[in-house]
Amino acid sequence: MALATSSLAKQRNRISSFRKLYKSLYFRLGTLLLAFTSILILVLYYQFNNSFTLQNSILDSQEAYYYSKMVEGWGSPPDTNLIKQDLKNLNTNCIIFRLEDDFTDDEGYGDIYWSSSNAPSPEVFYTSLNHDELLQNGVFIPLQVDFGTMGNMISTAVANDEFVFYFCMDYTVPSALPDFIFASILTIISMIGLFFYIQHYLYPVQLIKERVFALEDGDIESEIAIIGDNELASLSRAINKMIVDIRYLLNQKQQLLLDVSHELRTPLARMQLLIEMLPEHKNIGRLKNEVSLLEGMISNMLLSDRLSTPYQDLDISSIRLPRLISKVMAMFPNQKEIITIVGDIPKIELKVDELKITLAIRNLIDNAQKYAFSEQKIQLLVTTDSDGILIHIKDFGPGISAENIKKLTTPFYRIIKEGADKRPGFGLGLTICKKIIESHNGSLSISSELGKGSTFSLMLPFN
């Protein structure tokens, strides 16, 4: 059981950590920067690629024009001396076929009319940019010119009415990929640097967040460290001042309650002394009860106020559940007559404020004893689920209506039934019980069925 509970708690912690990360401001800023970086890289890639493609298209058309004019200048038949001179100047090779000897699918190439000394063996010419595409850039090209490859070499084919000229260059076009990768890495590094700068700049936000959570947990002493002299620093100072004001108001409120309780208890103590000095009378017992009720009311109001504020520390200690239940049962001298424990109590160790939790369970049993009006014993049952430990107090009284259940934990609310004897109390027991449980991050639930009884379930989380 303990292993299953531990595994479930770890899984819940992982889910909680993931949710915290997802909601984190820094995580969202990082995601935003990552998305922005990716879009920027894609836009730059498209822009550069598109602009270079357009530029290359114009240059290709101009290059085709000069190839055409060069071949026209060689004459027909071509002057080999001029050919050698231009090829040497251009550092390229050339293979010339008569038009009828050009490549066909059935017979391949015919006889070579002329070729330069370093020209490769002719292979199939694959067109990558044809004459019609070159004309689209507005450059007039007198002869038929196509760009492509022959084998693994970049080649250009130029044709006139009698010959086909294949220019072959043993040259590999450098890839633009390294430059693109370098630019992308530089962009990513810049964005990472920007992210860390933003994280450093917004660090006071993290401090403010932690301070607010600490305030919620009851820390009213510590302050937010002031970093810099900007708007966030001003906000930190304002929150520090607000916490000081809260601390002052809470102290003033507590002092007022203590003063009022002292002023009320002083005459009560005198009344108790006077009652003890009175001679025997049939109403002395009633007077003592009334004074005790007033004393209890003052104590309960003070305890209720302390539990209402989150700025009070709990005295947390470890106690095993069977030991806790035993301490509660010991508060009822006639426990065997009014309470029965159903089933076994799990041997689970709790970390709670022992005194307050004992008081909460005692209040539930005390309420069941006061208002159940039943001869059947109150049942105490302990169960566990994925959320924590549940302590059920079940009575077999007249039950509670749904409308009254909603009001039961309201301070000073009591259900007064017509014709029933008035029970002692001020309607603070369940209020205090609920506040004690909620201060342990637990919950109190009430279920009831008219004519059959009610069940008060106190849930305490494992952690």
Folded structure, characterized:
The chain is an alpha+beta fold and 463 residues long. The protein has 3 domains: 28-169, no CATH class; 202-313, Helix Hairpins (Orthogonal Bundle); 314-461, Heat Shock Protein 90 (2-Layer Sandwich). The chain is 53% helix and 17% strand. It contains 13 helices and 13 strands. The strands form 3 sheets. Strands 2-1-6-5-4-3 form a 6-stranded antiparallel β-sheet. Strands 8-10-11-13-12 form a 5-stranded mixed β-sheet. A two-stranded antiparallel sheet has the order 7-9. The chain is rod-shaped and about 150 Å long. The relative contact order is 0.06.
Categorize the overall geometry: rod-shaped
Helix content: 40-55%
Low-confidence stretches: 1-5
The CATH C-level class name of the largest domain = Alpha Beta
In CATH, the homologous superfamily of the largest domain goes by the name Histidine kinase-like ATPase, C-terminal domain
Helices, by number, come to 13
Strand order of the largest sheet: 2-1-6-5-4-3
Terminal CA distance reads 15 Å
Summarize the structure.
The protein has helices at 2-23, 25-74, 80-90, 131-135, 177-201, 203-216, 231-277, 284-308, 321-329, 335-338, 354-371, 402-407, 429-439, and strands at 93-98, 112-115, 125-129, 144-150, 153-159, 163-169, 316-320, 339-342, 349-353, 378-384, 388-394, 443-449, 453-461. It is 53% helix and 17% strand. The chain is rod-shaped and about 150 Å long.
